[in-house]
Amino acid sequence: MAQYTRVSGSVGLITLQNPPVNALSAAVRLGIGEAVQRALGDQEVQSVVICGQNGLFCGGADIREFGKEMTGPPLVPMIHAIEAATKPVVAAIEGSALGGGLELALGCHYRISHCKARLGLPEVTLGLLPAAGGTQRLPRLIGVPAALNLITTGHHVTAAEALQLGIVDQVTEHNAVDVAVKFALSVTGKPLHDRRVSSLECPAAPDLDSLFEEAMLKVRVACVQAVRAAATLPYARGMEREKALMATLFGSGQARALQYFFFAQRAVGRWSTPGGARWDTSQPRPVRTAAVIGLGTMGRGITVALAQAGLSVVAVETQAKQLTEARKAVAGMLKRAAVRRGTTPEPGSITYSDQLQAAARADLVIEAVFEDMEVKETLFRQLSAVCRPDALLCTNTSSLDVDHLASQTRHPHLVLGMHFFAPAQAMKLLEVVYGARSSPTAVATAMQLGKTMGKVSVAVGNCRGFAGNRMLKRYLEQAFFLLEEGATPEGVDRALEEFGFAMGVFRMSDLSGLDVGWRVRKAEGLAQSGLTGPSARVRQGRRYSPLGDLLCEHQRFGQKSGRGWYQYEPDPWLHRFLEEYRARHGLLPRRIDQQEVLERCLFVLINEGFQILEDRIVAGPEDIDAIYVLGYGWPRHRGGPMFYAHMVGLERVAQRLEHYHQAHPEVPYLQPCGLLRRLVASGSPPIHRWRRAIAGPHSQL
Ligand SMILES: CCCCCCCC/C=C\C/C=C/C(=O)SCCNC(=O)CCNC(=O)[C@H](O)C(C)(C)COP(=O)(O)OP(=O)(O)OC[C@H]1O[C@@H](n2cnc3c(N)ncnc32)[C@H](O)[C@@H]1OP(=O)(O)O
């Protein structure tokens, strides 16, 4: 709703009230409309100020209303009524003015912003365009190039940038509402025609056509077309075009997926564990000093992420040469980040040492040493002896047993996994892996620390590979099997990249290094050299592809060695190698189409996701989707693997898995898992009802 009061004698003050972000729900739109009418009809009122309660102007349209039947007064005529008003209307922007919120402000005659506010039109990130006049007013106000940039990227700008662009008229360090009220008094009675953005001519820009053509190639076509309408058509016709384009986007699968993902990223913060620990009943402990042990690539990235979050960091590396290199590399990373942000690097928050003892006073320790259980076991025993008894001891392992590491310490309830993704200073995802004995406070502390570092933290139970790598294993395995059966790395990657992955599975393996997985498979007793005959392709009673191991035996470790699944120099080796391999094992190559590549790679990964849900390793499908979009390059516009399964239809996913399982009975993971089958049997409920279905023996199924 919106509250109406009269202040300073003649200013009508309209306050949007819809916590937490004053989204423009039906009730708020109704409230604004009524308040505007009241203000315009009140003889005593000479000018109007619109603001939001609790220091936040407006987070835009209420995204939860999308996809439902629209109720309440529409936004566009409401904004028109404000713009057409004969009394000056001033927007007092604090906190955020985003999407419909900024469009509302653009309908006002003046905009005053607090210096800490952020403004933007992020609709494109939700698969939409700013259809409350944003595509028509913003280009008229700030010109086509700047408006196109904001509308097609969804980037937010600071108040200072908004002032420079001409979006706002004034920026203040004081209370923006008080300043706006004074301003409103000062403009009483002044002519308003030039202040109505819809009546402005779009400023001329050189070579508009090539600007639009270039933008079309890069970005969302609908946004570009709408802004082109602003530049070439009268306002009213531009608005018709904006509406028509929005109608094509509104119900699209992409928009649904992006809106689902907006909420999924936030839902993962409301974590819970099967043991009953929960986000709302567990208090995080403050972490001021963190120690990072091991300054290889991951350790350096973690050090930077912690320092950038404002923590004091003790960076420990026992090898002198590595320590010197790390110190230089970390300084370089901080400097580059500061240049990108236009700030200066914060000095003095990192101290370096070659002694473990330096970690003794840290509130929390994250080890990022070599991925080897013996090395980590020893380190955890040492840390337990050296560190404060209440220090949280965390491992950045990507797959080793957190419970086992906890058992090496005196305080296993303070041991956790904090699984970062490379590059750790940039990637948004953090898997917080709790063990059987991890305390709720420990989980809450690591989750909070992730948030402080600007990450999306997902609470995950301890199992081999946790959630992300456990699913990845099945995906990689299918990709190898497809090569055995006749596919090529190029063909598999093409299918996945056309689906939306930034990189196909083989290109991604080449980038991250084939030797990493090889080492893990050797430790698991899977990679064995010299095997011939049928036993070469079977391990632990199941089909196994040694292709990745064989490549490593040929010193093809990916980009780091100049060769992997791809040849980075003229070299037909790989195709010959595959032909010989297939001939040796009596495998008849066949033509494998894109559909089979996608179904086998993606559905097997989704099936493992359902198994992870059934095993209660994560609390809900949103956790898996956040992990895959933010950590594994799953295309955001497809919502994540579990949302994709919901869109494809659970019955189809199960049927296709069953089909491939019949063709490959030696691959048990192709068989639809129990939860997937139960969901299908219960009529395939929508994704937001899966949590209830997972709830275990008391499930609704
Ligand atoms: C047939 C065609 C017909 C078409 C007719 C349609 C006409 C459409 C007209 C207009 C188009 C306008 C579209 C839009 O405005 S789309 C929305 C654009 N806005 C955004 O994308 C902003 C999203 N929000 C944020 O970026 C942030 O929330 C923030 C910066 C405002 C605040 O950040 P922070 O303090 O970190 O809080 P949280 O992000 O954690 O959010 C708190 C809480 O609030 C929920 N929430 C946030 N924004 C919205 C919103 N716009 N609608 C609904 N809910 C919102 C958020 O989900 C959190 O709640 P939780 O999930 O329960 O935790």
UniProtKB/TrEMBL annotation:
Pathway(s) where this gene product acts: Lipid metabolism; fatty acid beta-oxidation
Reaction(s) catalysed by this chain's protein: a 4-saturated-(3S)-3-hydroxyacyl-CoA = a (3E)-enoyl-CoA + H2O; (3Z)-hexenoyl-CoA = (2E)-hexenoyl-CoA; (3S)-hydroxyhexanoyl-CoA = (2E)-hexenoyl-CoA + H2O; (3S)-hydroxyhexadecanoyl-CoA = (2E)-hexadecenoyl-CoA + H2O
Claim: Isomerase is one of the keywords in the record: yes
Ranges of residues in domain 3-hydroxyacyl-CoA dehydrogenase NAD binding: 290-462
Assembly, per entry: Monomer.
Family listed: Belongs to the enoyl-CoA hydratase/isomerase family. In the C-terminal section; belongs to the 3-hydroxyacyl-CoA dehydrogenase family.
Protein name per its UniProtKB record: Peroxisomal bifunctional enzyme
